[in-house]
Every structure is written in structure tokens, then in C-alpha cells.
Amino acid sequence: MMQTGKIELVLEKAKKLKLLILDVDGVLTDGKLFFDNDGTEYKSFHSRDGHGIKLLRQSGVEVAVISGRKSNSVALRMKNLGIELVYQGYENKIPAFNEIIEKRGIAPEQAAYMGDDVIDLPVMIRAGLAIAVGDANFAVKQRADWCTTLPGGHGAVREVCDFIMQAQGSFEEILNAYLK
Q1: What's the CA gap between 159 and 165, in Å, rounded?
Q2: pLDDT for the residue 41
Q3: Cα–Cα dist 34/64, whole Å
Q4: If you average pLDDT over residues 47-65, what whole number do you get?
Q5: Confidence of residue 143 (pLDDT cuts 50, 70, 90)
């Protein structure tokens, strides 16, 4: 649980967001990499994370992905979720971050970045809201504005999507559409 002052700061930052940028391995997945005998890579994505992304986009907050690795399964999953801003193979994620911000015409303060490892730190410290998954590397957690309670690949992205919608006042409207 966050301290009261920190909660208020994170809420204020979340209210300003127009974009959530996600790492893939360790955030959208649990970080495990599976390969078959032919070298084909497999990843596992949590369905609640996907639905959270769809709801967040419906609320008006865009979602983008920056990954240090390249994977066809990532491209397919992002296409399925309607995410157009997909940057793969970026070990240095700053150029992708800068391009996304410029393309969308927003300030860095209007973007959140969610990561799990030190490769994510350069972007996390530039984003308006830095988020670490619950099982992130200790150095990433220390520098994050907020750490999720859930680990990567197990609903942490959904936790963030719900939090942003609650902070911006759109969660109840989205929820009410399911209660009719």
C-alpha cells in the first residue's frame, strides 16, 4: 500500500495521461521465453490484461508497446488488441519513446511507462508516470512512481488500466455498460 502523499501524487499524474506505453517481456508476459525444437518462440499473454487495454483505449487513453526483442507473437497479439504503436527490437527504447510522443503530439508528462527491468529505466525516468510490475527488478521498483501488486503477465497491466480509468473518472461509466 502506498503512503497517502504518494497516492495523491500518482493520482494527479494519472489524471493527465493520454498514453500508456508497455514493455512486453516481464510486463505483458511473465518474462518466460518458450522455444520449440525449430526455434519458434511462444509467449503467454493474460486475457484480463488484454481486456483492460481495450477498456482503457475505449476510455480515450491510447496504448503503445516498446520491446527490446522482436517476436511475431507480439505483433499478432497487438494487432488483435488494436494497438498500432508497436516498436520491437529496441534495446535503447528512448528513440521509440520520442517518436511515439512526437507522433501523438503529447508531452512526456502525458505518458506513462510500465516496465520490469533496467532496460526500461531510461524511458521510465522520462515519462510522466513510471510504473513497475510487482516482481520487477529492485532498481526499477526503487525508481518507479508506483509498483503494481501483481507480477508481470498475471494481470498487472489490467491493474494499471483500471487505476488510470479510476483516476480519470471513466471507470464507472465503462463498468456500467456491463451492468445494463
Answers
A1: 10
A2: 87
A3: 24
A4: 97
A5: very high
CA distances for 62 relative to 76, 97, 111, 160, angstroms: 18, 14, 9, 13
* Residue 14, C-beta contacts closer than 8 angstroms, at least 6 positions apart: 112, 129, 163, 164, 167, 168
As a whole number of angstroms, the distance between CA 25 and CA 65 comes to: 11
Does the reported pTM lie above 0.85? Answer: yes
Q: Residue written as cell 521498483?
A: 141
Q: Give residues with Cβ within 8 angstroms of 141, minimum separation 6.
A: 132, 147
Alpha helices by DSSP H, listed for 16-155, are 47-58, 72-81, 94-104, 121-124, 138-143
Domains in the chain: ranges and CATH: 4-116+125-172 (3.40.50.1000)
Any idea what DSSP says for residue 18?
S
**Number of Cβ within a 10 Å radius of residue 134:** 16
Q: Which three cell numbers stand for residue 158?
A: 489490467
Task: Give the Å distances, CA to CA, from 103 to 78, 85, 97, 171.
Answer: 18, 10, 10, 27
